Amino acid sequence: xxxxxxxxxxYVLCDYVMSNIAWLLFNIVRFYMPAISSGYVAxxxxxxxxxxxxxxxxxxxxxxxxxxxxxxxxxxxxxxxxHELFTTVSSTFLNTLIxxxxxxxxxxxxxxxxxxxxxxxxxxxxxLCVYSCRLVITTNATHKIHNREWYxxxxxxxxxxxxxxxxxxxxxxxxxxxxxxxxxxxxxxxxCSKELPYPVYxxxxxxxxxxxxxxxxxxxxxxxxxxxxxNAVINELYPLDRPIKMQSTVFHNLIGRVKLSNIYGxxxxxxxxxxxxxxxxxxxxxVDIVISGIxxxxxxxxxxxxxxxxxxxxxxxxxxxxxxxxxxHKPFNxxxxxxxxxxxxxxxxxxxxxxxxxxxxxxxxFMRKYRIDELPQFWNIFKGDxxxxxxxxxxxxxxxxxIEQAPYYALMYQIRPGxxxxxxxxxxxAKNVDEMIERLQYDIVYLENMSMLVxxxxxxxxxxTVIMGRxx
Length: 472
Known about the structure:
Layout: H1 4-32, H2 43-47, H3 50-69, H4 81-102, H5 112-146, E1 152-157, H6 161-171, E2 179-186, E3 200-202, H7 206-213, E4 217-220, H8 227-237, E5 244-247, E6 259-263, E7 266-270, H9 278-313, E8 319-325, E9 331-337, H10 362-369, H11 377-383, E10 387-389, H12 396-405, E11 418-420, H13 422-426, H14 433-448, H15 452-467
Parallel strand pairs: 1-2, 1-4, 2-3, 4-5, 10-11
Antiparallel strand pairs: 5-7, 6-7, 8-9
C-alpha cells in the first residue's frame, strides 16, 4: 500500500516537471509569435538568454506556490475528478495572470487581440500539461483502490448491528471504497454482534491500538441507544489525528454544516474537518503567519513597557502560561501578560474571572479592558497553536462540563482556536459554564460560514471593541 507522503510527492513532482515543460513550451511559442520581437535570430540563443533562464528557474516555483495554496496537496487520496478539474483550471488561470503581469509585462503589444493570444497560450499550456499528469495519477490511484490493490486500514468504533451492517456493505461492494476494516472498538454497547468477522478491542489506549494496526481512518457505527456513551468517546478520537467519519443518524446532536461522503448510499459525516475548503485552509494559515509575524515586531515594545509596569504593580511573573485544548483536542500552552495577583488559583481549582474579580490587579483591569494581555498570543498564532480567528480555547476542566450539556462542542476541534472569535465579538467573556454554552452558539455559526471574508469582518469588529475599551 502506498503512503500518503509518497502519493503527495507524486503530485508535487508531477506539477513541478509539468510546470517547467509548460513554461519552456510557452517560451518557444512566444519566440515565434509575429507580434513579439525577441531581438534574437535563433531559438536556442533566445532560450539560453539570461532573462529566459532566470524565468525558467523561478516561474515554475511561483506556479508551485499557487498550487500549494489552492489546497490541492492537502488530500492525497479520494480526490474528486470534477473538483480536481475545477481546482486545476482556477489555479492555472491565477498563475497565468500573475506571470503575465510580473514577467511578461514588457511583451504587451499594441493590439489587444495579441495580448489575449499570449494569455490564452500561457493558460492552455499550463492547464494541459499539469492537468494531464494529475489526471493520470488520480485515475491510477482510483483504479487500484476500486480493485482492492490499495486500501486503508480502518477501525470501526462500535460492535453492534450497525457495525456489522457497515462491514457487509463495504465488503460486498463490487468496487472497493478503500476502507479495509481491521477491528472494532467496544464502547459499552449492550452486546457485540457474534457475526463480526474481525477482532473486537476494548475502549482503552486507542492511540496505541491505531498505531499497532496502522489505522488510517476511523468510522463510528454504533447503535442508536448508545448515543450518550458516544459523546464521551468523540473526545478520545480527536487527538488521534485521523479522519473521523460517522453515520449522520448516529451523531444527530452535532449541528453545523459538515462534509458528507457516501458509503453504499448511507451518508457519512466527516466531523474531523470543517466546512472551509482546503485552499481556504491554506490561505488562512498563510495569513496567520504573515500577520502574526508582523504583529510580533510592532507589539514587542508595547509588551516590554507593560512588562515593566506589571513588575512594579504586583509581585509575580510578567507572563502567564496556562494549558488550553486546541486543534484536534491537543493541549498547548497559551501565553498572556499577567493580569491577576500571583497564585490566583492557589487552591488548585480552575475558576473563571468576572468583571469585579478581586483577583485582578488594577493594571490588569486596564489591560483586560483593551485586551493588551492577549498580545503575547501572536506567538501562539505564529507557532501554529492558534489562529487569528477561531473559537476561544478552553481548559479541559471546563470542556468536560460543557460536553455534558452540549456534546456538539466537539466540533470546535475541527479548527485551530483563535485570538478572537464571533462568540467573543457578539457575546464577550463568559463568567460560567452556562454562558460558555450560550457563546458556543455563535462559534457554531462561524463554523458553518467560515471564509476569509468572515474572518476579516470579525477582526474589524474586534478592533472596534479594543479601541472602544469594551474588552471586559
